[in-house]
Amino acid sequence: MTSMALNTAAGLSGMLKDGHQSMEGVDAATLRNITAAKELSRIVSTSLGPNGMNKLVVNHLEKITVTSDCATIVKELEIEHPAAKMLSLAATMQDDECGDATNLTVSFAGGLLYATEELLRSGLHTSEIIAGFKKAGDKLSAILPTLTSHTIAQATEESLAEAIMPVLAAKQFGCDIVLAPLVTKAALATASRSKSYQSGYNVNPESIRVCKILGGRMEQSQVIHGYVALRAAETTLTSVSNAKITVFGCGLEASGTEAKGTVLMKNAEDLKGYNKSEETKMEEIIKSIADTGTKVIVSGGTVSEMAMHFIERYQMMCIKIPSKWELRRLCAATNANALVRLGPATPDEMGYADEVSVHEIGGRPVTSFRQTKSLEDGCRLATIILRASTTNVLADLERAVDDGVHACRQICKDGRLVPGAGATEMELAVQIRNYAESCPGLDQYAIRAFAKTLEFCPKVLAENAGLNAAHVLAGLSAAHANGNASAGVDIEGGLDGTSNNRSGILADNSILDILITKESAFRLAIDAALTVLKVDQIIMSKPARGSGGR
User: Fold this and answer.
1) 55: part of which helix (H) or strand (E)?
2) pTM given for the model
3) What span, in angstroms and rounded, lies between the C-alpha atoms of 499 and 506?
4) Who's near 127: CB < 8 A, 6+ residues apart?
5) Three-state SS string across 58-79, please?
6) Residue pLDDT, tens place only, 255-298
7) How far apart are CA 101 and CA 515, in angstroms?
8) Which of 223, 229, 279, 467 has the fewest CB atoms below 10 angstroms from its CB?
9) The pLDDT value given to residue 195
10) What Rg value do the Cα atoms of the chain yield, rounded?
11) β-pairing verdict for 294-299 and 317-320
12) 171-188: buried (b, 16+ CB within 10 Å) or exposed (e) per residue?
């Protein structure tokens, strides 16, 4: 009965277990949440754009990550504060959906919360700020589609490559010229027909695999239509054309019994006969596989010496792929089914590749399963082989490729593009600021702060490029007020030795961003910021302590 008793005089501490923490009110809860979110936004904002700085993060396993990708940074930081974790979750969702604009999501949400802090100190109530931000968000959603400057109706390699170049450049400046054609070639080769998508194609990111090989130059990267295994063949035969493929999920060896057994041999003839029967059975299995027309055997386990001997005798190629995930990718690329029994495969279970060959890349033997003649029917899997001098650069290039593939998918879904280089954010800021003047209530201050926060994108782009941010913002405001809605930040203005544009204003802006990606980033950022603002009390129970707990 004691546990059911409530000491009303003890208040909240009498209701909860010992060791809990409770913070409420503007100063104790709201401003603390805002400070945590601001710190996360400050960390990632300097990595925005092609000239963004890298972060060196060492996680609890002492793994070193050097990158400017916001999604990777917030993942490796292992954030514990609940408010900052909301921004981290928004960035993760943006990365999963669109693959790009994760930094925009976190930075814009942090900027809104920074503006909220000033509004709270000015005397506005949280509900008035939330109402103003909601109005501004609705106005932003209405204005954004009207800023469309270009539409990709038919997805081609040239149009897609031009559209995803800003996405790739934001991850590794300079790699976009090399990687954009590779990504679009792989995306269109594996795309399937879909009436629900505007361009008629559906790009599946799972169908594009990245294979990293250390050494060489980035320009040596290439696309292979098919699957690439980072190992050589087990047999002396290393090249097969028009290959029928049998895939085994198990090893090619004599199966052992589940229970121990004893074999009694009375003389040498019994011993010879025992070995002979095992050889005869293995030869019978390999011969039955060869009789189906199989030229390549893929094993997911060990291959015994006896099995290898008969595979060589029947002129077949054998390769081991111990990873189950890689075996599934190979089955998807060749349209094969992995067998769990030793024996011949039916025609429906066998796969096919136009060419299977072993070749050397950067001193490392690789086996490629190419689909060349059957490309017109659609390639099920494409592999992008990346080359670079260090593992960190390779990892960054892999992230850039992943973002580029997701960008291709978004463009195929909705081909509308808006001006990039901070032009869209600046135009939205100008129009929402004009909208704030027409709002009579106190929420107009929140709408005006929302518009000012939108200017963070061109401001940070200018700062990261070493330009005078105040001069750039003043010039952009004047250009957009005069009707030039595509004016953006010239990050190379006067820095490359060829341009005479020292003002940092890119009047004739050819950089384009994907509309659907921008919409998703702004929506997630606003939702995350409003969720943090609606919290007026934080209650934390006593953390559980295990045997290895701190």
Assistant:
1) strand 55-58
2) 0.82
3) 11
4) none
5) ECCCCCEEEECCHHHHHHHCCC
6) 665 556 677 777 777 776 666 777 788 888 888 888 888 899 89
7) 11
8) 279
9) 66
10) 30
11) parallel
12) bbeebbebbbbbbbbbbb
Between CA 213 and CA 406 the distance in angstroms is: 23
| pLDDT the model gives residue 207 | 84
Residue 245 to residues 60, 86, 103, 248, 306, Cα–Cα distance (Å): 43, 48, 45, 10, 20
Average pLDDT of the segment spanning 62-78:
85
d(CA 401, CA 171): 9
What secondary structure does DSSP assign to 105-116, as a single string?
HHHHHHHHHHHH
CA nearest to 68, candidates 403, 347, 419, 387: 403
Spatial distance between the Cα atoms of 353 and 338, rounded to a whole number of angstroms: 15
Backbone φ and ψ for 62, nearest 5 degrees, come out as: 65, 25
Question: Would you call 229 helix, strand, or coil by DSSP?
Answer: strand
Q: Are 455 and 463 in contact (CB under 8 A)?
A: no
Phi and psi angles of residue 516, each rounded to the nearest 5 degrees, phi first? -65, -30
Opening angle at CA 391, ends 75 and 368, nearest 5: 105
pLDDT digits (tens, 9 = 90+) for 219-246: 888 898 888 988 888 888 888 888 889 9
Contact criterion met (CB below 8 Å) for 398 and 212: yes
Entry field: residues in the chain: 550
Task: Please report, for residues 151, 203, 229, 280, 379, the alpha-carbon distance to residue 375 in angstroms, rounded to integers and kept in the order given.
Answer: 28, 15, 20, 41, 5
Residue 353's contacts (CB-CB under 8 Å, 6 or more residues apart) are 226, 243, 245, 296, 333, 334, 369, 370, 371
- The whole-number pLDDT of residue 498 equals 46
Please give the full DSSP string across 407-458, using - where no structure is assigned. Answer: HHHHHHH--EEEETTTHHHHHHHHHHHHHHHT--STHHHHHHHHHHHHTHHH
Q: Position 4: which residue type?
A: M
The single-letter DSSP state of residue 491 is T
Token reading at 251: 């090893």
Is residue 338's pLDDT more than 80? Answer: yes
Concatenating the DSSP letter of every residue in 261-322 gives: ------SHHHHHHHHHHHHHHHHHHHHHHHHTTEEEEEESS-B-HHHHHHHHHTT-EEEE--
- Whole-angstrom distance, CA of residue 204 vs CA of residue 374: 19
- Smallest Cα–Cα separation from 297: which of 306, 313, 286? 286
List CB contacts of 371: < 8 A, sequence separation 6 or more. Answer: 225, 226, 333, 353, 354, 379, 380
Tokens of 294: 């199989």
* Mean pLDDT (whole number) for 372-388: 74
